Amino acid sequence: MNRSRGNNRTSYTAHRRTGPARGSRGAYVYGSAARQIEITRELEEPRRQPRPQVRKNREKARHMSAGYVFFLGAALLAAGLILVNYIQMQAQLTNLTKSVASMESELNSARIANDEEYNRIINSINLEEVKRIAIGELGMTYAEEGQIITYSSKKNDYMRKTAGGSR
After folding, report:
1. How far is Cα 156 from Cα 167, in angstroms, rounded to an integer?
2. Global pTM?
3. I need a labelling partner for 51 at 20 to 30 A (CA). Which of 5, 11, 39, 75 fits?
4. How far apart are CA 101 and CA 89, in angstroms?
């Protein structure tokens, strides 16, 4: 049993003695002395023979039958194939992920280029020049009050005007 008193860190260890020296100095040894191991006594004791059933079980455990070896080989082969397949699938997934990332990068570059070209075209159009050409050279005029026809449609996408009038 280890005890410490306060801060002086003194430890008292009690060891129960075994063997022939038990009665000579008392039942307990106090302090940090290690007990002496009696090696000669352990070597001199004869070993007990195991029971016949235990001996048979140990002999069986030492030898493996052909069926068990075949089973272990098949299990090892199956585990190896599964692991190789798993590694191949992981590599394929990594390649596909890289491919998707490069395609996304290409798509973003194409979108940026498309937006820049659209803005360049929109900014290059001069609406005053278009109006001057439409009125002056092509003879177009603004619509008058009677020329405007209003249509109503249940569908919002497009509308057709028939030759017979308005709908």
Report:
1. 14
2. 0.41
3. 39
4. 18
